[in-house]
Write a structure and sequence with these properties.
heterodimer, A: mainly alpha, globular, B: about 170 residues, mainly beta, Lipocalin, elongated
């Protein structure tokens, strides 16, 4: 076992493995599953114009997010990652099964904190609220992103590079966590067996995360492992029927409105806040924070 | 949950996972990579009149010489002669001479091309400086002795890899 974990791997094999999970999963699981969800919606007589337009808006917001991601990637991310890796990191780790597994787990843990931060600071919620604003819950919602959603992961994954992990491995691991997360956006799968529900993030746990019911707010931030939530006090099981969306619904399927509503609401809020320091604090304080007037 | 509890639990998780990765990279290593570049003096005093054995491991003297490597790439066709010297606890290889495919030789600038950080007489590890599209990259490499006048140097950099044969010059 130890020999297996310590055995040096070839980059081509690792790339191939992540390619199968990260890239090809869109075709062999995500799209077929979404089609299945549409059939289910039709069977339940819930397949209406609003749902179809909402799904289209989701995919369009992903286009905006992807554009920002590509620009950031080309301009900065890879350069920053490699600068950190070459200048301020621990000794560079070999590529073996142990480092790949540890890197995925660390990327998952970084995702937990990044996600929690997105919910708990003003500027984070201004962009992440887009993802939560759909009143529906299906795989297309996983692609509903806000304009600044690509920035926060960089901040949280750089420490992993500083620990000696290869920047490419870190990026591939981050995408792997996101792909796993995508598969959780479904109402088709109920609760799974107890050991799985105890260790892993499941559709049930993630439905809770998307709930606008008061007891479900700011719960179940996990990516792959729900044990992070259990260990850090943010776990909530699915009990009451989940009502999806946010406390102040946007009531729109216009992709532009969907994509920018969080930022525009945040700008409006800044306009209502008096004092420069208070305006700055609004970026870092919780989304519902307002200064005492 | 208290913030201090969050911090300590998070640090514990990070240290555990990163530590495990470092353990499997540097702690649990295959035995053939164990460095034996030692220059320790014998622990017992030499008897008078007895010929002293060299303090350095003679197996690693294998490396200290000039080595010729043939290349046949789009960038360069010919051979490079490297000079490997022991410097401190590592072995460094410097470019000594370039030879084109017609055999014309030209003295090299003497830049460092390879650092062998560990070598046990048959296998070792190092850092190889490769140039690709005008940019320099430092790549982890492995060396393995083939016979007393040959060793191979292999590397894999995100799928771009090669195995070079270094022959004693």
């Amino acid at each position: 076992m130890i020999d297996f974990l310590a055995k040096k791997l070839d980059w081509l094999d690792v790339h191939q493995l992540f390619y199968i999970f990260n890239d090809l999963s869109l075709f062999y699981i995500i799209i077929p599953f979404f089609v299945l969800e549409l059939i289910r919606y039709a069977y339940l007589k819930r397949l209406d114009k609003d749902l179809v337009l909402d799904s289209i808006a989701n995919v369009i917001t992903f286009g905006g997010f992807f554009l920002v991601e590509v620009i950031l990637g080309i301009l900065a991310i890879t350069k920053v990652y490699y600068w950190v890796y070459n200048n301020i990191s621990l000794p560079h780790l070999e590529l073996n099964w142990a480092t790949v597994i540890c890197c995925v787990l660390l990327a998952d843990f970084a995702y937990y904190w990044e996600h929690r931060t997105m919910h708990r600071i003003g500027i984070g919620w201004a962009t992440h609220t887009v993802h939560h604003s759909s009143p529906h819950f299906n795989m297309s919602v996983a692609y509903r992103f806000g304009p600044l959603d690509a920035i926060m992961p960089v901040v949280f994954s750089l420490p992993i590079v500083m620990l000696g992990f290869d920047p490419i491995l870190v990026l591939l691991s981050e995408v792997f966590v996101q792909v796993f997360q995508t598969l959780l956006h479904t109402e088709i799968i109920g609760k799974l067996t107890k050991p799985i529900e105890f260790i892993f993030n499941t559709p049930s746990h993630h439905r809770v995360h998307h709930g606008s019911n008061r007891q479900y707010w700011d719960k179940n931030y996990a990516g792959i492992l729900i044990i992070w939530d259990r260990m850090l006090g943010t776990f909530e099981p699915e009990k009451e029927k989940v009502v999806y969306g946010i406390s102040q619904p946007i009531n729109s399927v216009n992709p532009i409105v969907v994509f920018f509503h969080g930022i525009s609401r945040f700008v409006k809020k800044l306009g209502q806040i008096k004092g420069f320091s208070n305006k700055l604090l609004a970026f870092l304080k919780p989304p519902d924070w307002m200064p005492k007037q | 949950m208290k913030n201090s509890t969050l911090v300590f639990r998070s640090l514990g998780i990070i240290i555990f996972l990163a530590g495990l990765a470092h353990l499997f990279s540097f702690g649990v290593d295959v035995s053939d990579d164990t460095p034996t570049l030692t220059s320790e003096t014998p622990s017992e005093p030499m008897e008078q009149g007895k010929v002293a054995t060299p303090a350095e491991n003679t197996e690693t003297d294998f490396l200290t010489d000039q080595w010729k490597v043939a290349y046949n790439t789009d960038d360069f066709k010919g051979a490079i002669i490297y000079s490997i010297k022991k410097e401190g606890k590592v072995y460094n290889a410097y470019t000594h001479q370039y030879e084109d495919e017609n055999g014309y030789a030209e003295k090299a600038e003497g830049s460092k091309a390879l650092t062998i950080t560990s070598f046990n007489g048959s296998k070792g590890k190092g850092i190889y400086n490769i140039e690709y599209e005008g940019k320099q990259y430092e790549v982890d490499c492995k060396i393995a002795q083939v016979d007393e006048n040959t060793f191979t140097l292999s590397y894999d950099y995100y799928g771009y890899g090669d195995v070079e044969t270094w022959k004693r010059h």
